[in-house]
Amino acid sequence: MIKAALRLAIVAVLANGTWRVGMAYAKHYRFTDAVTQTTQFRGTKSDEEVRDRVFEVAAAHDIPVTDANLTVTRQQLHTIVRGAYKRPIDLLPGFTYQWPFTVDIDTFVVEAGRD
Predict the structure, then answer these.
(1) 114 domain-assigned
(2) What's the CA angle centered on 89, arms 55 and 22, to 5 degrees?
(3) Which uninterrupted H or E stretch holds 71?
(4) Within a domain: residue 81?
């Protein structure tokens, strides 16, 4: 009986940690998808306008990026967003790990009205 309870507790702890990591990755992927759409359909917006929009998207998705760890540049018809951040994840009760995430997006800019 005690063995079964111990196994169940271990499975519960592992499932909880897996769930928390999975949710962090889900937020990260939703953020990168929104940034990809923002950069792809930027039109004639400046890098600063796109950068401001990326930070709005980050705030909406609870992503901890700052000016120091995220860059937005345009090279001809490409918009490049690069950066990294760490998100604290409670893997075990009482143990928080700073999980690293990277953002590396290179999109082809679709300009409206271009022939």
Answers:
(1) no
(2) 85
(3) strand 70-75
(4) yes
